[in-house]
Amino acid sequence: IHAGSAIFITNSVRIMIQGEWGNPLFLIVIVAEGIMTAREVCQRVWDISAPCAAEMGIHLWDVTFEKEGGQYMLTITIDREGHTDIDDCEKLSRYVDPFLDEKEFASLPPYTLCVSSAGLTRRLRRPEHFASCMGQEVELRFYRPINGSRTAVGILKDYDSETGSVTLEEDGTVTVYEPKDIAAVRLYVSI
């Protein structure tokens, strides 16, 4: 190695070699903790939770890692044919909790783990959610008013998984809503 330094970066280790002709070389190794994105956290928690959920006869509806107010929430949402109860939530929580203490999750900010049922007004986020709720009444919430309203309620007619557009039938009129306008989609229950 000639005058100057060389840097090699791998997945989580940075190696820097410094030195000049006639001077000793120094090897500096810096281990950097990998910081997981929210999407990676959700996927990893999904992968950890899936075997236990399958064994319990429930299926994972969703996993989210979001900041709510001033606090992060890691939420695992579950569903079961018939109904889900508090025992299902507790069992899955106790299963997942020790895995979250592993080193791979050490870079996460402080958070609260929440395992809950999908509920009657479940949020639709994944293509399989829309597929399972096709033909049912849903509520769309918009980022800004569309036709004077921040919400629309109608029958879910279509979901385009490539574009994210949602098609509703409202009072006989079919409307396609673009994902840039949609803040949330939930099953709608009238009381």
Rg calc? 24 Å
**Unreliable stretches covering 5 or more consecutive residues:** 1-19, 26-32
> Helix count?
3
Query: From N to C, what is the helix and strand string?
Result: EEEHEEHEHEEEEE
User: Based on helices, strands and strand pairing, what is the structural class?
Assistant: alpha+beta
Q: Biggest sheet, strands in spatial order?
A: 10-9-8-7-11
Distance between the termini: 76 Å
Strand content: 35-45%
Shape: globular
Helix content: 10-25%
The residue-averaged pLDDT reads 84
Account of the 3D structure:
- This protein has 191 residues and is of the alpha+beta class.
- The protein is 21% helix and 43% strand.
- Strands 10-9-8-7-11 form a 5-stranded antiparallel beta sheet.
- β1 and β2 (13-19) form a beta hairpin.
- It is globular and about 50 Å long.
- The termini are far apart.
- The model is unreliable at 1-19 and 26-32 (pLDDT under 50).
List the helices and strands and how they pair.
Blueprint: E1 4-9, E2 13-19, E3 26-31, H1 38-56, E4 59-68, E5 71-79, H2 86-100, E6 111-117, H3 127-132, E7 137-146, E8 149-159, E9 166-170, E10 173-177, E11 182-187
Parallel strand pairs: 5-6
Antiparallel strand pairs: 1-2, 2-3, 4-5, 7-8, 7-11, 8-9, 9-10
Descriptive key words:
single chain; 191 residues; alpha+beta; five-stranded antiparallel sheet; three-stranded antiparallel sheet; 3 helices; 43% strand; globular; disordered N terminus
